[in-house]
Design brief:
The complex is a heterodimer of chains A (650) and B (246). Chain A has 650 residues and is α+β, with helices and mostly antiparallel strands. Chain A is built from 21 helices and 21 strands. Chain B starts with a strand and ends in a 5-residue tail after the last strand. Chain B is built from two helices and 15 strands. Chains A and B meet through β9, β10, α14 and α20 of A and β1, β2, β3, β6 and β10 of B.
Amino acid sequence: MSDIAAQRVLKPQDTPDVNTLGPDPRILLAAGNAAMARMLPGAPAGAALGELGQFAGNAQVARFVGQPPAPGGGAPPAPGGGVTSGAHGDSVQDLQVELSRLQASAAPLTEDGKYGPLTEAAVRNFQTGAGIVPVTGVADPVTKAQIDAAFAALPAPVRVVLASGATGTDVGFAQQKLNAVGASPRLIINAIFDGPMLGAVIAYEIAALHRFPTATVDAAMWTALDSGVKGGFLAPEGAGGTQVEQNTTSGTANSLGTQVAGTSLHPFTGVGGLTGGPAVHELQQKLNTAGASPALKDDGAFGPKTLAALRAFQTGRVPPLPATGTADKATWDALDVASPGSLTGAVDRQWTEVVGGATYSMVGAEGSHYSWEIQKTRMLVTAKVTFVGPPPPGAWFGYVPATWNQYQGVDAASGNSLPIDFQMTSGGGGDANQVKVLTGSGRANAGEWYLADPDAKNTIPHEFGHLIGLQDEYQLHPGDYVRVTGHEPPVGDTTGPAGAPAPATAPTPATIATQLQTAMVARSSAGALAATVTAGVRPGAFAQRIVQEYATLATTTVPAVPGVVGPPSVPGKPAVTLTGDLLFDLNAALPDDTDRYETIQVLSYSSGSVMGDQSRVSDPHDHGAQPRHLGEFMAILGRALGGTWEAKRR
Amino acid sequence: MILRLVIADGRQTPAVAESVELSADGTLTGWRSVSPAGVGWFTGKLPAPELTALQALIEAVTPTSPPHPVPRPGAAEEVLELPATGPVSIAGLTPASAPAPTPASAPADADSLDGGVDGAGAWARLAEASRQLIERLTDFPRAAVAVDVASPTTARLVHRGTDPLRLDLGTVAVRVTAWRGYYEPAGDWTGPVTGPAEVEAGPGWTYDLPIERAPDDTTVHLAVNFAVLSGSTKVPVQARFTPVPK
């Protein structure tokens, strides 16, 4: 699990030699070695803590202070009664987690919460192995109790003490966990106990463990980190013992694209805007909550009474808003303050994303338009689409609920729950998305879908995700990855390419970074691929060291090149000044071909979810629609109905 | 050259890497890598009215600054080159995305948008016309290969055009997709075929590939991956057959 031989384990009496703190002493900036030396001989006094805070970064210490360990780790809660083929829900997903870890399944089970043949076979295997008779394949209470017990008895991950200069997978897991508890700035998951990690470790020791810093991740620190943050270890799954990295949860995911600054989430409504539909319903409901008198009929039609109530609301603000009769951004902002919740709503989301170093957007008329309605028995989310060109196949409309209708909102405090249903409808108007339907097959994008797409059952749900404001989850920078997925970037590969036979040696991250820059200057995506993928670079910690090394190189300007008709056809490129951000630069300097795509793939992070890259990333823990993708609708339920809602499998 | 458009998308396999170049006399040349109408080299001459219309669009954008559109998620790279501008990214630039023409009475700062809103509209119209040129190319095959269904169990590569081209059929991947009614999926089959590592395809040349028989009441689509040899370069391509379902 870890490269123990390469780690230097500090004994308790050791005094860290801060002059030889491993490969990256560059961050020893603030308090410096003297402060460290004063603090190490005894318990830290207040002044010393202050200096250490300066050393590690006061903000970082402050983030760690007072953070109680979050619940996590261990076995998930036991489901209720027995479950059997055809069952579904969180309890089935929990069962799948346990069966995979107990290696009762043939291979790691896809944790989809559906009790299918593979889950049933795994239950049978477990029953056989545990001597439970009869072997039914049903997770009856007796079987489930034994599964729970066996899962709870699984050994905890073996942790090794880490000190400055250490490398290996465990270092990466510690970095993940330090990030998850608030390391600031975030650590790059490079699997090297380097200067930035040292600062984070010391800060955590002071602020969370309340102890004199040892500058090590020792058993006590591991215990604290493991109890506070789920995941962060490798575990064998399935009968073949496939080593699967257990995702490290980190904060609350926000899977939505980055909203364009200054834009409203509400469509312009009323005079000059939408005069019917969910937006008007929302307006009427909010005006009523804000005290419209007489109360408006909630009919979704913008008539004279709604106009009058809207103008009255506008003039009634302090200071008054222009009585335009149009619910513009300022008016909606005021309405949202006066009436946070409503049972119906319309969203006009203008957003951008950075994927593979390139910026994409859905803005203006091409923004994401969708609506929602909280009904008696469900919440219904609708994206209306104006299809331009040939009519869309009926199957497309079925693919959306097949992928997306997996969850319900649950308010644990009240016990209330509400299924969340998604639908795509065909229609026109200012609150519709526009999609061009193209004949034949090809690679779809958010605005162009192909009639004969053989993978439409995956494509359409992905593109539908964009229509409800969700961004892509592939080829991301680390910060975007953790924001979007809610878990830390995986540690992945820590060692990099193997060396060629002696006397040649394996290329270092610095060497590869230089080769990449050379390839960019030559506009050679083949050169970039050769330096990385072909050489054996895989996604993870080693690849991130390349990204780090690249950032230290002197920048240069790559001259413009004209396009080439080919073959192969190569787009012209304007001159580009390299920025030091490897993904941005690869995108800007190299042509959009397979070699560039695969190069960026190993230097970035991708999820296996419906919004990720399902064809390249297989992750049994993170696939299909995920609870995080419903976060916006959980917040809406909270505003409308009160309580704290979570998306749970249904 | 008065116009060159290259469309590239490395996310799919084989990558889309297609181009078209237009000369002042209307000569159209280009390369298609992923196409239902054939892959390979294409050369022809645009009728005078089409050429005139394109020249007018080019003249309309020449005095304006190029736009900086931000494409929708998943969009391919599209780079348009004019002698006066050099490479300009047009991915995401469509008539729908361009602002409406500005009235003459618009305030002076309306041109703070890239190229001015009128300029953006002109660029969007030129972008659309340029994309159409890539489609237009396939009317003029010079040395190309298309795929067709020869029988329920046979796909057939067919040479198109007047000039020969060299192919690598050492590793051919065939995907058959069957559709029933209006694009209702009715089955999918993929299979590798091993053929000659190098073969010259000229006028009249065909090459049969065995495929799985699809149900009789379905329409079959084909996607055949192979490589075209250009000098010492092996260029991956995909020929497609995508008729409208019965």
